[in-house]
């Protein structure tokens, strides 16, 4: 090695590599060589896949996860926790206790209580009242557990979404899907282990950090799939580039990256190789899974899906295909549930029923297909937002439209399949839906329960970073597996 080459190697060594391997050039060289050897397969020619399937350390009830994330926070009073007493008191000043010492996002002064403008009816498998705006829910209510006692400590959208989906209200931490694929790998080498789809005309408020891999290796980050246009941006070859030519280019690039890794030992170099190879395989596999024009007219009608359009219905049908093909974690974000009542675009009378119509039929079809194919047995399905809504009318700036402010103290969600009870209701709130009455479940409890169902001990499932043993459930003691909802 020439003096110039040694100088270039030292300059290119990452801070992480330098601190990990020691302070001498000899240690860097020896460590990098060892890492390069361990990362190759038995033949010495292929990198071991970071997304290869892994067995969980504990018995698992779920093999895969589908998270239906309603970005903006649907009001629990108009969905799964209606309050007759609140309807009786509609238009009266709220009790002082609801606002005294409370930090509210937009409500000013002494607000009035707001009864729900929408009807509810009893859902017999659960024995509770549920909004009539969700008729399709009745078709699969027998398979879900409704949790009416969720709570969080964040009352603004982005921090609340970050806390729920990454375990920390600040950016930079791995998402739940990244943790799952890091621990379990993928069941299909030709598809990503973690796929994200977005509908509603906007990204969720928390942005792309919600499917980031954070400090985990980058091959575990979520891959965003689209239901209109190219399913994955920048995966298709440019015009004039044949597949054999692409293969030769990737082989040359792989050799360059291997050489770089042998010198510097940066694990992200191996991640880069793996991502290029996955993208190459995805060029064939993704179109086969995402081509909705191949679905029968009956299937498209049951979901309300239209090939080529961007919609939540299309995303639900794609989610079914991805889960069937072995994707470990699928997350659908649907934006537009922030029902403040500042106008027709976010009110309870016009906008909220429209949002319910957009999701009701496709979720019912998806749940029906998962149950019919047996996938629901080992697929954990979650539905909900990042927090709840107040029992008070927001009336921001004197608005006459009906809407509710942010409410972190209680909200509702449902879970199904993958080891949870069927036809069950957990927790309850007070007569106004303002606070939890019994059996509280924090967002960290939910995270612990998801990890438990996937076969991990949430206390010991951790990753060393910055001198700490990082966990999805956070550093503090307290999060628990909600055993009361387990089958």
TrEMBL record:
<dbReference type="InterPro" id="IPR006311">
    <property type="entry name" value="TAT_signal"/>
</dbReference>
<protein>
    <recommendedName>
        <fullName>Sulfatase</fullName>
    </recommendedName>
</protein>
<dbReference type="InterPro" id="IPR017850">
    <property type="entry name" value="Alkaline_phosphatase_core_sf"/>
</dbReference>
<dbReference type="InterPro" id="IPR010869">
    <property type="entry name" value="DUF1501"/>
</dbReference>
<dbReference type="Pfam" id="PF07394">
    <property type="entry name" value="DUF1501"/>
</dbReference>
């Amino acid at each position: 090695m020439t003096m110039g080459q040694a100088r270039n190697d030292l300059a290119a060594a990452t801070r992480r590599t330098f601190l990990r391997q020691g302070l001498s050039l000899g240690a860097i060289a020896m460590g990098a060589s060892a890492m390069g050897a361990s990362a190759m397969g038995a033949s010495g020619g292929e990198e071991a896949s970071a997304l290869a399937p892994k067995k969980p350390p504990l018995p698992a009830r779920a093999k895969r996860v589908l998270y239906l994330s309603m970005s903006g926070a649907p009001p629990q009073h108009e969905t799964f926790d209606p309050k007759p007493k609140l309807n009786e008191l509609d238009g009266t000043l709220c009790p002082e206790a609801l606002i005294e010492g409370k930090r509210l996002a937009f409500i000013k002064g002494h607000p009035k209580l707001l009864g729900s403008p929408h009807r509810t009816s009893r859902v017999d498998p659960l024995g509770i009242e549920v909004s009539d705006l969700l008729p399709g829910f009745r078709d699969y209510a027998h398979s879900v557990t409704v949790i009416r006692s969720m709570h969080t400590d964040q009352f603004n959208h982005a921090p609340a979404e970050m806390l729920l989906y990454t375990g920390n209200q600040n950016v930079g931490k791995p998402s739940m899907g990244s943790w799952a694929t890091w621990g379990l790998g993928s069941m299909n080498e030709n598809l990503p282990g973690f796929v994200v789809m977005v509908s509603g005309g906007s990204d969720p408020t928390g942005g792309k950090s919600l499917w980031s891999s954070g400090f985990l290796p980058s091959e575990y980050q979520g891959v965003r799939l689209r239901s209109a246009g190219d399913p994955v941006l920048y995966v298709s070859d440019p015009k004039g580039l044949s597949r054999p030519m692409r293969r030769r280019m990737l082989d040359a690039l792989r050799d360059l990256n291997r050489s770089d890794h042998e010198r510097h030992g940066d694990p992200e170099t191996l991640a880069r190789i793996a991502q290029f190879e996955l993208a190459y395989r995805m060029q064939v596999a993704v179109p086969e899974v995402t081509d909705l024009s191949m679905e029968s007219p009956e299937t498209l009608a049951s979901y309300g899906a239209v090939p080529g359009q961007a919609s939540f219905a299309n995303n639900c049908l794609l989610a079914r295909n991805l889960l069937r093909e072995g994707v470990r974690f699928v997350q659908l974000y649907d934006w537009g549930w922030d029902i403040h009542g500042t106008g027709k675009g976010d009110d309870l009378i016009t906008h909220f029923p429209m949002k319910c119509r957009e999701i009701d039929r496709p979720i019912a079809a998806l749940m029906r297909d998962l149950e019919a194919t047996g996938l629901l047995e080992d697929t954990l399905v979650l539905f909900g937002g990042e927090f709840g809504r107040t029992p008070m009318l927001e009336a921001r700036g004197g608005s006459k439209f009906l809407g509710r402010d942010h409410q972190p103290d209680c909200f509702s969600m449902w879970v199904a399949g993958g080891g949870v009870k069927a036809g069950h209701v957990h927790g309850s709130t007070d007569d106004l839906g303002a606070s939890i009455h019994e059996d509280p479940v924090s967002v960290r409890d939910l995270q612990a329960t998801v990890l438990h169902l996937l076969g991990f001990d949430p206390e010991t499932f951790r990753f060393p970073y910055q001198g700490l043993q990082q966990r999805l459930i956070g550093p503090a003691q307290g999060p628990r597996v909600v055993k009361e909802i387990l089958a």
